[in-house]
Amino acid sequence: MSKAIHTAQQYWDVRSDLFANYYKKPSTFDKLLRKAVYLRTAVALKTIQEYPDCTILDIGSGPGVNSVSWLKNSKASHLLGIDFAENMNEYARKNAAEQGVGSRCEFIEGDFRTFDFGGRKFDVNVAVGVFDYTEDAASFIKKMSETTNKAFVISYPENGLRMFLRRKRYTCPVYDYSEDSIRSLHSLCDIKKLEIVRSQGGWVSVAR
Ligand SMILES: C[S@@+](CC[C@H](N)C(=O)[O-])C[C@H]1O[C@@H](n2cnc3c(N)ncnc32)[C@H](O)[C@@H]1O
């Protein structure tokens, strides 16, 4: 069983370089066994590209490598990243400035579940690599739906050997999903269309 002695916030606050390097300097291991990380980024980008001038909410934006890639490869007008691990936000702000998109984005410290957006909505909401650490996925997805104008994208890990090994390795709790549980979660949301894409060790959903 997992030695779940840390919260997800504590776990990720000391891993900004590690996670950024999955994208920036992928090892052979990453390329072979972290295909889901790259697929979910690509699915989110494709969705963002469908809505020129869109605003994006990147929930659990981490080191912001995805955020920068989405801005550089789309006509999105603005991206707000929210992450409760402040070291991740510091990395993201620096990285966005270095990559020349600092004026099109902002990274704030906060827990999406409790953050008060004051009625603000975003055209595309993305939470990739986040439901893995989300205990109450139902209230999380409902809030995502309520703060989205056009589409929201989420990734999910499945149960199995890889999840078993993650639970041994990770020091924070990790949660798994099935295609049925993903459909049930979306039944709580006011959406017209749901697309579920299979990935290595999980799924990515696009709800419109
Ligand atoms: C595995 S990283 C993924 C980072 C980024 N989305 C990516 O795919 O490159 C997960 C991030 O989600 C953040 N996170 C998890 N739950 C969160 C929540 N409820 N509110 C804000 N950030 C959260 C963690 O701090 C961490 O930085």
Write the CATH fold name.
Rossmann fold
Counting helices, strands and paired strands, the structural category is alpha/beta
Q: How many strands appear in the DSSP assignment?
A: 7
Bound molecules: S-adenosylmethionine
CATH superfamily, please?
Vaccinia Virus protein VP39
**Low-pLDDT ranges:** none
Secondary-structure element pattern, one letter each: HHHHEHEHEEHEHHEE
Describe the structure.
The protein is built from nine helices and seven strands, in the order H-H-H-H-E-H-E-H-E-E-H-E-H-H-E-E. The N and C termini lie far apart (37 Å). A seven-stranded mixed sheet has the order 3-2-1-4-5-7-6, sandwiched between helices. The radius of gyration is 16 Å and the shape is globular. The protein has a single domain (8-111, 123-207), classed as Rossmann fold (3-Layer(aba) Sandwich). It has 208 residues and is α/β, with parallel strands linked by helices. Residues 8-9, 12, 19, 60-62, 65-66, 82-85, 88, 111-113, 128-130, 133 line the site of S-adenosylmethionine. S-adenosylmethionine is lined by residues 8-9, 12, 19, 60-62, 65-66, 82-85, 88, 111-113, 128-130, 133.
Question: What does the secondary structure layout of this molecule look like, with pairings?
Answer:
Blueprint: H1 8-13, H2 16-24, H3 28-33, H4 35-49, E1 55-59, H5 65-72, E2 78-83, H6 86-98, E3 105-109, E4 122-127, H7 137-146, E5 148-157, H8 161-169, H9 179-186, E6 194-199, E7 202-207
Parallel strand pairs: 1-2, 1-4, 2-3, 4-5
Antiparallel strand pairs: 5-7, 6-7
